[in-house]
Structures are given as C-alpha cells and as structure tokens.
C-alpha cells in the first residue's frame, strides 16, 4: 500500500523535484528529498494542514514564495523527468524512509554547519549538504503516525 495517494503526474513532479534539489547528492540524497515531500503530504499540522496532495506540496506558497526554491528559480525542475528519478519517486511514495529524513518536514543547504534547530524544529541529521529537521512531537503528531 502506498504511503500517499499518487498518479503518474505526481511521480513526474517528485522526480523533477528530487533531481533539481539533490542530484549532486546521489540516489540516497534524492530519496531523502522525496521522503520530505511525501511527509509533507501526510502531515496534518503546522505549515502543512491544508496540503494533502503531492501537487499541493510541490507548489505550496509560504511567505509569498514557493516552499521549494527549485520551483521558483530552478531550471532543472522544469526539465522532463528521467526514468532514474521516476524509480526513486515510486520508492518514496510506496515505502522508502530512512534517517535523517524519516520524519523530516524540512531540509535546506546552509553552505556551512547545520543549525541545531530550524524555526524551532530540531535538527535530526545531515546527509551531504542537506540538513534535515522534523517537528517537535507534540506539535505534529501526524508526522509520526505512518
């Protein structure tokens, strides 16, 4: 059973996003970014209360900007999905989860050391250039349910 409802267009969106955000971090880095996308679609809390689909996650606007920088200014995001990234996207919607992105709702590349928290949410780990953050448990129980 899939972790989140999806169709082929969703797979292509995830594939394009993981390539744009983490191609330089290899397959594992792209899987972790994809996992954050799925986690946001599943979480019913904080910035993600009204975000239920993959499309809504990818094109979510926060503070007047797209939540993912690649949507706003990433030329890789607007290229067609490739089969490698489609396979990775199918993995994350169906079953793939791993620390530090297992419950993460946020990630970013600080071009330096990872801060111990990100907008009050604890740092869970780093993979290559990306720092991952999951919600404080009592603020977002739905992020830990599945």
Automatic annotation (TrEMBL):
Organism name: Salinibacillus aidingensis
Domain Cell wall hydrolase SleB residues, every copy: 24-133
Annotated protein name in UniProt: Cell wall hydrolase
Keywords from the named record: Hydrolase
GO-annotated molecular function: hydrolase activity
Pfam families linked to this entry: Hydrolase_2
Residue ranges of coiled coil: none
Superkingdom of this protein's organism: Bacteria
